[in-house]
Amino acid sequence: MQRQLGRHAAEATEALAVTGRFLAEEMAPRGRERDAVGRDHYTLASRRFLGATIDLDDTYAWGWDELARTSAEMGHAARQEVPDATGPDALAVAAAIRALDADPKCWVQGKDASRGWMQDVSDRAVAQLDGVHVDLPAATRTLECCLAPTDDVGIYYTAPL
Predict the structure, then answer these.
(1) What confidence score (pLDDT) does residue 155 get?
(2) Distance between CA atoms of 102 and 98, rounded to whole angstroms?
């Protein structure tokens, strides 16, 4: 039992470290110094943005449910892709990311390879969605993936002409 407790404590420590890095490196730079939007303002802003009045409590609960569902799906996918990705969902995803990042077979190097990979993913997504989950108009079934005309491998979207 002591070994199990030690292993679980190590997993919890790692999960907290992963969460801390995510909050510090990804979320904090996008945040504000203080909350500039209270509930009353958000009620008005959401109505103006959505064109409808929503139940904020139900929407908030739905958001948490979706986060839990998405996290569970990510954990499941991580475990399927990388069998060594074990533990709670966040740890499994972090382990899978590390394993995939370390595997040269998973790398896409260079502009041509990146554009080709992007085009392949796009084509497969359209083929899997069209007629199954949505009926796509003919004009939207062909997507041309391009790279930004820069020195890096930036991805961008432009509307059809």
Answers:
(1) 61
(2) 6
SS (H, E, C) 9-47: HHHHHHHHHHHHHHHHHHHHHHCCCCCCCCHHHHHHHHH
Q: Please report where in the chains the tokens 């085009």 appear, as a residue.
A: 119
Predicted TM-score (pTM) of this structure: 0.54
Altogether, the residues listed in the chain come to a count of 161
Could you please report the per-residue DSSP string of 102-160? H-GGG---SHHHHHHHHHHHHHHHHHHHBTTTB---HHHH-----B-SSSS--B-----
State how far the Cα of 114 lies from the Cα of 93, in Å rounded to an integer: 23
Here the tokens at position 100 are 């995939």
What percentage of the chain exceeds 90 in pLDDT? 42
Handedness of CA 46, 129, 68, 26 (dihedral sign): negative
Which residues are CB-contacts of 140 (< 8 A; sequence separation ≥ 6)? 160
